[in-house]
Task: structure prediction
Amino acid sequence: MTGYKGFTQEWMDAWKEKIAGSKEYKEIAKDWEGSVSITVNADPSKNVPEPVYMFTDYWHGDVRDFFICDAAKAQEAKFIMTGDYARWKQVAKKELDATKALMQGKLKLRGDLTYIVRNVKTINKVIDLLTEVNTIFPDEG
Amino acid sequence: MGYDQDLSFVYFGPTKIIFGSGSSTSEVESEMSALKCSRAIVVTDQGIIKAGLLDKITKSLGEKCVGVFSDVPQDSGMDVVDRAAAFAKEKGADIVISIGGGSVIDTAKCMCILLTEGGSLADFEGIQLLTRPQTPHIVIPTTAGTGSEVTWAAVIYDKSKGQKILIVESYNAPRVAILDPTLTAKLPPLLTASTGMDAFCHAVEAISSMQREPIADALGMHAIRLLNKYLPQCVKNGSDLTARGQVQLAATMAGWSFGNAMIGIVHAMAHSIGAVAHVPHGIANGILLPHCMEFNLPDAANYYAEIAQAMGVCEKGSTTKQAAEAAVKGVFDLTKKIGHPQKLSEFGVTEENIIKAADMSMSDGSIVNNPRYVADSGEVLEIYKKAL
Ligand SMILES: [Fe+2]
Result:
């Protein structure tokens, strides 16, 4: 199995492919509209010298833009998620449930929370598919 | 009641509890001083003023009460929060004291954010965005059910969007809740019964949630014991302050329980039928709970068997399944004993309403934590039909 360096464009492409190829996702996310940005805070001790900003966009079961962006673009997303590298790593490794992490303040989310609550299954599916990507983490590679 | 080896959780419940008859007047000023605050803005509604609950408390605060904001409506909105926060700022308030039910408490929670951070509430829509403690908040609840006095979420209506917004912030949990049973003594029997069943429901759903954990279980289980014993007494004799106090404590414990372990299908269905047909939250929960427990039996028998024990309805030598069934019957019996409505149709709910609500329930976040996987809206509709 090919490994992808975590939090890079190649890694995002692999993730996007997983989502686009999932019939289950298409069904669960049929009502979802809008973009989510993910900010990974810098952690030089873990080989993440600068923050990483990712922009992801979804529309009624389809996946649209999926790219590494800058801080300003990340702010434009309908939902803005932020967290430390160590937390995102736990999420990507399925060691930490993303919704639990939000409740516990390990991740932050700006945006219409009632929409998120109504679409928790979509979020969970997107994360599930991420955990299927063979990731080489910056502090492990 | 076993837990997996990989059990991992965070329990959060930082609110200090002061309990006792008369505590709302005898303790509020010293609690304020303990928080190093000297200028309180009191937030309440017209109903509380008319019931004569406000005066004694503001009197006990004396000059430390720098203003009263009493224009909080039933479903408070962002415009109300903005006005209340501006009023508090103008008065130089350094603490918010809320006296009332859910809407008043949530308004006060949101005010605390604006007093600390400035800006508009719309900037804080989301979860865990704050990075420091907010303006102190003392809650003096006048109902017993929502658990809002110890939870860190607030729901406020956004007129511009025509929908409710949700703000969840650990840094904004109330610092102190003063539970004074005398304040709930005048709640009418139906409101007592339905708000009590809301609390009961929080406990049952937390105990059987996918996010269940031992601390939330302990609090939920004792809440069930107290509600089972004292809720009927409260309904029968509202001025029984012993019973009122125990029900208040149970609601608070259930608040901690579900605030950490979350809720399930009952709340998903209550939220939906509330949105579609305006059935009050507590009433919808009370009617739906035993029917949902019946649905959950195949996957929640272990937890319900423990609930049967807490309710004292578990016969000696019964199997887990029998005990769980006894819990379901016990809840049906409890609702009848307290004169709680039994059917949604009593509140004008129609076949058409439940079809729409069943669909909505599938996309309510609470359903994700339900112990039994809900495959489709058809399953939800079957439960609604039984409760119609
Ligand atoms: Fe509730």
In short: Chain B has 14 helices and nine strands. The pocket of fe (ii) ion is lined by residues B 198, 202, 267, 281, 285 (CB under 6 Å). Chain B touches chain A at residues 10, 12, 125-129, 163-168, 170, 211, 262, 363-366, 368 (CB under 8 Å). Chain B has two domains: 16-183, 189-387.
